[in-house]
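Recap from last week: sequence in, structure out.
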Amino acid sequence: MNYNHLLHQSRIEAVAQSLREDVGSGDITAQLIPVDRISSGHIITREKAVVAGTDWVREVFRQVDPGVTLDWHSSDGETVAPGQTLFTAVGNARSLLTAERSALNWLQALSGTATLCADYAAQVAHTGVKLLDTRKTIPGLRLAQKYAVTCGGCHNHRLGLWDAFLIKENHIAACGSIAAAVAEARRIAPGRPIEVETEDLGELEQALAAGADIIMLDEFSLQDMSEAVRLTATAAKLEASGSINRQTLVAVAETGVDYISIGALTKDIKAIDLSMRLDY
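Predicted structure tokens:
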């Protein structure tokens, strides 16, 4: 599947759903404004943030009223300061007010994701580790959030269950062994990345012997992570996972693992405070 195509289609569908739930059968309050009134508005941020979601804003206004023009003063991945104007919108006043909340909802949520990711990435910038998101995303918003993760300087794990193998404890039990699970994965989809979750150094050695591409170190101690790095050398990539937070992140990164996966990047976010001011 083509990622850009999936993202494009997901954006159109998700924006349409957000407008259905907000606008419904029509914006009755907007009808208070003369139908031919033209206005402009500027959108500001009330706090420091990393911007993400500009294409979702564009899609909201396209679906509400293609005649509205947007002039962006910021771009995805850019850090903005409190009080800064992110973009201005000019067009039918009814359309501006109808689109406002849905547009800002997308921008504040995705910018919240990007801002959190940038904070985490900055903490480990002195190491070679890559921070990964997980499948712990807001239902229906996975591709949007995973896009925002990249705007914040972090990286995507697999998009879903279809694009890479992640062989966990229950898969191993059902297949009989790590070796059997990896062999079957190679048979089913040659060339697809195969990651194996391990819970101790013994399982790590089994995953190495089976030829796993990536080995997840689940809830390993710092000492065992360091030993795993020594044992693995360049035979496979190592991903630390499980109960990793701001307090433990740097120490984990400094063990030398290749990746750290953190569910908080997409599930523990705080929306950025944005506001639209109309100029009548």
